[in-house]
């Protein structure tokens, strides 16, 4: 279990380029299974989860070449569909959430799939019902193997239909869309997730010959085709990294430019940080954050305390709430952070309390932060990263704190943030991997 040692208190300065989007990468890389032709994918982040998925595809017989560090050429012309039934797949696939999205393409092209109990963050219950019920509506049968916790799916023939999803699941929508591209007839998905990740997937599928309309909305129509071909696709900048860097700049009073932030794909993210009183300027596709002595949380128009909560896109992503929470600890004013989707994502506030933050955890979903307004600094402590975003939030807290912090279990951070220590050192941070 590796750790970061962080000496806090330095003001950072400079330019940082966001990596390619992790959650987009997991969808896009799964989609290469839909064709026997070559698919070139660029701006791939070099992070644990994505590398594991690429390894998984190689184990399945997909040919992968890497002309440069961030680009892969995939060719799924000799896939061993039986590999999915193996224990090796269950073990490796079970290490990341993204492995569930191998199922849609496998069902569509090879008529069978297995979904291992997926890994990913332990942030509360994360059901797969939307995926499975969607496949079932397309004509697949499933068995749930209780003891090993995996789903076995088969589909001699997928047939398009109308479906109204129970919830706009991000990976669920991606999975059903991928299966529907090769189904007979037309599939209509209402209450579909429409995050930029899903939009990017649909655009890539269309460039492979799929016929998807309604991209960017919650009503997707997919006219099935008989085969898909090769294409090239470039991942968007990771919007969660962009948000994390905005928060980090404010919290550490740093002047930072986020270069190539993919501004048009950020939705409400910049405005949510502005609601915390953080100044930021959009300069073309860059975001400039000036060094700020103080930032003051706004109130609602009637003067009541601001609430920041998550909501399916185009609402605010749950993956940035931990960052918002930590940044609010040094703001002037108060905010209620309401994490609606996940039950166990706010428990990391214990560590912030130990660092001297003023937070009241109201219940597992809600925390009220009373900003310190820099009256005193957080103090460095030893802590363990519980999940990817809490890990990054604690790293930001440590960078702003007085003294030295040790963050353990940083595999959680490495799951989603590429070379984070190296990139932060370039901005002037004192961070060391132990
Ligand atoms: C690999 C990947 O892409 N992971 C992302 C994906 O996970 P993932 O696709 O697994 O998450 P889902 O969209 O399925 O849903 C997440 C959780 O929120 C609940 N839920 C979902 C929709 C809704 O309207 N109401 C609701 O309460 C679900 O029951 C589930 O417990 O989307 C999540 C929600 O944006 C993000 O946190 C994850 O980073
Ligand atoms: C929850 C996340 O990831 P995963 O779905 O892979 O656990 C995340 O990216 O914040």
TrEMBL record:
Residues holding phosphoenolpyruvate: 22-23
GO CC, any one term: cytoplasm
Entry keyword Transferase: yes
Example GO BP: cell wall organization
Pfam family of the protein (one): EPSP_synthase
Alphabetically ordered keywords of this record: Cell cycle, Cell division, Cell shape, Cell wall biogenesis/degradation, Cytoplasm, Peptidoglycan synthesis, Transferase
Family classification: Belongs to the EPSP synthase family. MurA subfamily.
Name of the protein described by the UniProt record: UDP-N-acetylglucosamine 1-carboxyvinyltransferase
């Amino acid at each position: 279990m590796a750790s970061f040692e962080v000496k806090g208190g330095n003001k950072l300065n400079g330019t940082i380029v966001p990596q390619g989007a992790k959650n987009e990468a997991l969808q896009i890389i799964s989609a290469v299974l839909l064709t026997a032709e070559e698919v070139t994918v660029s701006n791939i982040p070099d992070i644990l989860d994505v590398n594991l998925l690429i390894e998984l595809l190689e184990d399945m017989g997909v040919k992968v070449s890497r002309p440069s560090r961030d680009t892969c050429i995939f060719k799924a012309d000799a896939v061993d569909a039986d590999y999915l039934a193996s224990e090796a797949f269950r073990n490796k696939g079970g290490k990341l959430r993204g492995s569930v999205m191998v199922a849609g393409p496998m069902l569509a092209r090879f008529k069978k799939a297995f979904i291992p109990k997926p890994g990913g963050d332990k942030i509360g219950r994360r059901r797969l019902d939307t995926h499975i019920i969607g496949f079932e509506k397309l004509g697949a049968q499933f068995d749930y193997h209780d003891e090993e916790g995996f789903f076995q799916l088969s589909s001699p023939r997928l047939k398009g239909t109308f479906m109204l999803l129970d919830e706009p699941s991000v990976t669920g929508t991606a999975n059903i869309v991928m299966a529907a591209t090769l189904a007979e007839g037309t599939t209509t998905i209402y209450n579909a997730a429409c995050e930029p990740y899903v939009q990017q997937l649909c655009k890539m599928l269309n460039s492979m010959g799929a016929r998807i309309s309604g991209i960017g909305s919650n009503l997707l129509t997919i006219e099935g085709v008989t085969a898909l071909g090769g294409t090239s696709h470039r991942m968007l900048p990771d919007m969660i990294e962009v948000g994390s860097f905005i928060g980090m700049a404010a919290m550490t009073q740093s002047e930072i430019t986020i270069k190539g932030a993919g501004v048009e794909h950020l939705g409400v993210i910049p405005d949510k940080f502005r609601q915390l009183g953080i100044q930021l300027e959009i300069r073309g596709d860059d975001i400039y954050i000036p060094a700020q002595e103080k930032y003051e949380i706004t109130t609602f128009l009637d003067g009541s305390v601001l609430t920041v909560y998550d909501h399916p896109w185009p609402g605010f992503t749950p993956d940035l709430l931990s960052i918002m929470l930590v940044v609010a600890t040094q703001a002037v004013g108060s905010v209620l952070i309401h994490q609606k989707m996940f039950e166990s994502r706010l428990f990391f506030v214990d560590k912030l309390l130990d660092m001297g933050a003023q937070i009241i955890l109201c219940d597992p979903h809600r925390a009220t932060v009373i900003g310190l307004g820099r009256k005193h600094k957080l103090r460095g402590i030893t802590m363990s990263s519980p999940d990817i975003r809490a890990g990054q939030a604690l790293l930001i807290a440590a960078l702003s704190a007085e003294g030295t912090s040790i963050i353990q279990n940083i595999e959680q951070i490495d799951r989603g943030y590429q070379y984070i220590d190296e990139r932060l050192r370039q901005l002037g941070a004192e961070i060391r991997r132990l």
